[in-house]
């Protein structure tokens, strides 16, 4: 396969970096601030989980990286998206096109609506090779079968000419994964890849995704609202609330001792399989409207720890340290009272 | 529990949806066996959870219990009366006592009606039990009971968030003082932080009004939290039925074990110590279910016997004398205890 040489990995430069990204949507009620200064990085072979509820800005960030944000009403009002150190937002459309699909691929939640219903899956998979690699139809189809085998679709040879509706939900999601893998990208963004699937199928698909990511040494950004799915596969987690990252941590650390009251509340509010509790802890109130994000910390109306300072000063995402002031590594919290949250 | 009379008794319930071919001369070419011989009881004040994956028939059971679908065969007895055989007048009285809360709070409320009209509508249909005099006052009380501001009575559904809409749906369900509420995935459309609020509300209301719930969901953790007893469904049949401790701590059916082990745990340490059973393949089509045991095509224990004999839902003989949680109905020829949740 002749591919133009990928730029050699520069030590110290992350594979993909989002830096202080701001995105707004124009609405009748004014500007909805969907993303307000999000920064994160993903390296090769690493899985970053972006966790958040609906409206937290997790999907908008991903869409901006992929360049599939609807503009208008969307508008990027600031920030950079660096792929191997180069800002994709400053590139020409042509340059960006080369990275998209080829180097960064995306898996969507709803495979049935993401696939074209009138084209066979073999044709759609082969399209990647015909368009990006200039292969003939025959070569492309052979490649498609190979890919379907790779994502363990049984009887791939016979099924390559089937249409999306002839596959089950889990199988369709495998086809989506195959499509994202087709050009051996460096980064895969998976937006709620298993949310529409049943638990037993969800486990199959997550396992497959994790295995392929290891084999291909890809960076994976996993966007989800499910704390359980995250615990299964992620290396590090970024928790989003009202368009900002409120906490980042390595996966074990986050579950053991959250450093932001929102994360803490979320963890306490989910029922557990292994014991039956009395009443569930519930975070009071609702997430804020994005057209009217509260002053200071956006979580202040729902926070049990809120003090005066929380209503005036927006807390920065600051490094979280051990009780004795020693470093924990990779942890940060956007709470004025992270010390009390994690240690007290 | 044995000395109590069940409030709802479901026996050998079957629902087949015919598959037809042809336009003018329709010919039946088969049937989707959505529910196939399901029996269970519901007692006063308890919550029966029904779990299963999509297509297992759990929502069809809900519709049958509400008499929104007619069963192909089998009986649903409410306090001894078979609801599918009642006259429309008698049925109306029964329906008053069995209400439903739907999954999607966005489509189950009429966008053109105010919240007051939505919650008050059951009184229009059942004027005999409507409060004498001021209905609006009763609606305000109901709003207060479900934790919404009574001043919101003239607002429209779109002015509320998903969690608040689900509260409106619950208030409507409560309006006629029912004894049973059938909840079909009541929190699965809600955000995690709001789910807990609604679950807590439902538990509080159950204590306050001695309600019985049939709680249908696919989320095993939530079902464990709220249920007293749990039934696990697979492809139109109950695979296992027991108290929450029996099902979660002592599962004996391989499907229950696989389902439990597949639940993502929000704790990486538990997850790593736990063994995981990953099932191969997908759920077969209910139009053409496997012979014998329906789970056999995905089961690691399947033998010839499973293809020939349909296992009945009963306490497995060899566990009959055992103490503890193992002795509960399980529809498997090779039922065996395996703890997949703890470890």
Automatic annotation (TrEMBL), chain B:
The keyword Nucleotide-binding applies. Keywords: ATP-binding, Nucleotide-binding, Transport. CDD domains: ABC_NikE_OppD_transporters (cd03257). Residues 8-260 form the ABC transporter domain. InterPro entries: AAA+_ATPase, ABC_transp_ATP-bind, ABC_transporter-like_ATP-bd, ABC_transporter-like_CS, Oligopep_ABC_C, P-loop_NTPase. GO terms for molecular function: ATP binding; ATP hydrolysis activity. Pfam families: ABC_tran, oligo_HPY. One of its GO terms (biological process) is transmembrane transport. Belongs to the ABC transporter superfamily. This is Dipeptide ABC transporter ATP-binding protein. It comes from Streptomyces sedi. The lineage of its organism: Bacteria, Bacillati, Actinomycetota, Actinomycetes, Kitasatosporales.
């Amino acid at each position: 396969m002749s591919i133009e040489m990928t730029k050699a990995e520069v030590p110290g430069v992350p594979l993909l970096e989002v830096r202080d990204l701001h995105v707004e949507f124009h609405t009748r009620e004014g500007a909805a601030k969907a993303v307000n200064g999000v920064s994160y990085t993903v390296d090769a072979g690493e899985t970053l989980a972006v966790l958040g509820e609906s409206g937290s800005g997790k999907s908008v960030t991903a869409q901006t990286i992929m360049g599939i944000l609807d503009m208008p009403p969307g508008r990027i009002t600031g920030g950079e998206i660096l792929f191997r150190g180069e800002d994709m937002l400053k590139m020409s459309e042509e340059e960006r096109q080369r990275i998209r699909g080829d180097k960064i691929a995306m898996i969507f939640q709803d495979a049935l609506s993401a696939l074209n219903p009138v084209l066979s899956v073999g044709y759609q998979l082969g399209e990647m090779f015909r368009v990006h690699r200039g292969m003939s139809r025959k070569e492309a189809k052979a490649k498609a079968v190979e890919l379907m085998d790779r994502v363990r679709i049984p009887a791939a040879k016979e099924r390559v000419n089937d249409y999306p509706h002839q596959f089950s939900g889990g199988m369709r999601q495998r086809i989506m994964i195959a499509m994202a893998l087709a050009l051996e990208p460096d980064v895969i963004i998976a937006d709620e890849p298993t949310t529409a699937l049943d638990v037993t199928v969800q486990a199959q698909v997550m396992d497959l995704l994790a295995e392929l990511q290891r084999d291909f040494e890809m960076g994976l950004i996993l966007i989800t609202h499910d704390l359980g799915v995250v615990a299964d596969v992620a290396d590090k987690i970024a928790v989003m609330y009202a368009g900002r990252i409120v906490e980042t941590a390595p996966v074990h650390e986050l579950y053991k001792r959250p450093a932001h009251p929102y994360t803490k509340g979320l963890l306490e509010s989910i029922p557990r399989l292994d014991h039956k509790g009395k009443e569930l802890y519930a975070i009071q109130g609702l997430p804020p409207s994005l057209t009217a994000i509260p002053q200071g910390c956006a979580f202040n109306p729902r926070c049990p720890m809120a003090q005066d300072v929380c209503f005036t000063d927006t807390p920065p995402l600051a490094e979280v340290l051990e009780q004795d002031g020693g470093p924990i590594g990779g942890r940060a919290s956007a709470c004025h009272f992270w010390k009390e949250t994690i240690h007290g | 529990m044995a000395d109590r009379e069940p409030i709802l008794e479901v026996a050998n319930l079957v629902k087949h949806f015919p598959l037809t071919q042809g336009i003018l001369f329709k010919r039946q070419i088969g049937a989707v066996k959505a529910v196939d011989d399901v029996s269970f009881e519901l007692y006063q004040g308890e919550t029966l959870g029904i779990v299963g994956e999509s297509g297992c028939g759990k929502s069809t059971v809900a519709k049958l219990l509400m008499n929104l679908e007619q069963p192909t065969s089998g009986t649903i007895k409410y306090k001894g009366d078979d609801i599918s055989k009642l006259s429309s007048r008698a049925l109306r009285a029964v329906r008053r006592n069995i209400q439903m809360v739907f999954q999607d709070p966005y489509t189950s409320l009429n966008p053109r009606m105010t919240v007051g009209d939505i919650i008050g509508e059951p009184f229009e249909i059942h004027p005999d039990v409507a409060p004498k005099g001021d209905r609006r006052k009763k609606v305000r009380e109901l709003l207060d009971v479900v934790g919404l501001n009574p001043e919101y009575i003239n607002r429209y559904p779109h002015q509320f968030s998903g969690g608040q809409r689900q509260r409106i749906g619950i208030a409507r369900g409560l309006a006629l003082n029912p004894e049973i509420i059938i909840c079909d995935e009541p929190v699965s459309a809600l955000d995690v932080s709001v789910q807990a609020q609604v679950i807590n509300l439902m538990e509080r209301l159950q204590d306050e009004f001695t309600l019985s719930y049939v709680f249908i969901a696919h989320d095993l953790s939530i079902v464990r939290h709220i249920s007293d007893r749990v039934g696990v469904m697979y492809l139109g049949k109950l695979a296992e039925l027991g108290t929450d401790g029996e099902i979660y701590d002592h599962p004996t059916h391989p499907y229950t074990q696989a389902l439990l082990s597949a639940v993502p745990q929000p704790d990486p340490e538990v997850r790593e110590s736990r063994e995981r059973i990953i099932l191969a393949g997908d759920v077969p089509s209910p139009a053409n279910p496997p012979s014998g045991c329906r789970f056999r095509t995905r089961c690691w224990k399947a033998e010839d016997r499973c293809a020939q004999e349909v296992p009945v839902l009963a306490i497995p003989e060899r566990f009959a004398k055992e103490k503890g949680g193992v002795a509960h109905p399980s529809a498997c020829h090779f039922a065996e205890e395996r703890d997949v949740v703890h470890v």
